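Page 42, continued from yesterday. The earlier attempt failed because a stray header line got pasted into the input along with the sequence. Redoing it now with the clean sequence only.
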Amino acid sequence: MKNKYILAADIGATKTDIGLFYAAAGFLERVSTQRVASCGEIEFLRRVKEFLRLNLVAGELAAACFGVAGPVVAGRVEATNLGLKLDEQVLRRELGWAQVFLVNDLFATAAAIPGLKEPDFAILQNGEPPADRDSPIAILAPGTGLGTAFLLGGERPRILASEGGHVDFAPRDEAEVELWRYLMKKFGRVSCERLLSGPGLVNIFCWLKCRDGQDKLCVDEKSELSIEKFSGAEVVAAAAAGDNLALLAISYFTAILGRVAGDLALTGMAAGGLYLAGGIPAKIIDYLRQGQFTNGFTAKGRMSDWMKKIPVKVVLNPEAALLGAARIAWNRGAGRDDGK
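This time it went through. Structure tokens are written below.
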């Protein structure tokens, strides 16, 4: 009897993780993983085939699942911030496998959460254990974009995919109204993703830079970064080096992130917890612990006391979506329901 293997991929706007797992009885054992730059469909297929040629030296592939940063509809997806288009039927034909599945990348992250261990998380708010163990969990993931999903507990957990990162941004005060106007002129519409992502952090910084010297909020906040093209990671690095304007940008980012996370948890009545995933939260964990995030998260008027009971955690494992995609492939390959 041939050994059975699972192929998984986490396809983001900037990087793609590919992994091969051995499907042993009751668990998945990692065989090999590789990280590459995200690319178009033809190059992606070539890389998958080459990865398997090098790593699948014996046995056979039982199933594959690719988590993609975009909405999956009827087995098709176009990565929102990448332009990559994939189709399950085309993949099955091109790769020659019957069991190939596409899911949203946050759907894959949600699938991983029940199997992650305590060291895979950092706690921002302890909250209280929910009275109902089947209470929903909300996942919010700022990275190159802003992903959202819900995990519904129970004997057979189900996952609800979401594109909640594209809902409208609601400014809270006059300064944020100015920020909204700045982004409105630039994009024509201001979604939460325009602020709560790597490019979003850059947008906030550039707004502050444009105000520098024109508003007393920023008059003394000089910065070494120019407003020429740079990344969110450079804003974080500048903040770590003591750049006042970069620190102010992160302060706005964490406060707005807290409010949006609270809105998501409130919308889904996520008594089971709010999990921050994606590439950014683990990198700014110290800033998230300074109070702006939790203040924004819990400040929900008459629902504030309830919000303080919700556990809030940061997912530290950078391979969560990859591990979730592997578990989905394993479940669907065996005919088990995982929320699709």
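Notes: The chain has two domains: 4-112+319-333, 117-316.
Reminder to self: strip header lines before submitting.
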